[in-house]
Amino acid sequence: MKRNMKQWVADTLAAQEKKPMPVLSFPAIQMMDITVKELISSSDLQAKGMKLVADRVDAAAAVSLMDLSLEAECFGSTIRFSDDEVPTVIGSVVSSEEEADALAVPEIGAGRTAIYIEAIEKAAKMIEDRPVLAGVIGPFSLAGRLMDVSEAMVYCYDEPDMVHTVLEKVTEFIIKYCKEYKRVGANGVVVAEPLAGLLSPALAEEFSADYMKKIVEAVQDDEFVVVYHNCGNCVIQQIDSILSIGAPVLHFGNAIDMAEIMPLIPADMVAAGNIDPASQFRNGTPDSIKAATKELMEKCTKFPNFVISSGCDIPPLSKWENIEAFFEAVQEFYEGK
Question: Would you give the distance in Å from CA 127 to the centre of its chain?
Answer without folding.
Answer: 19
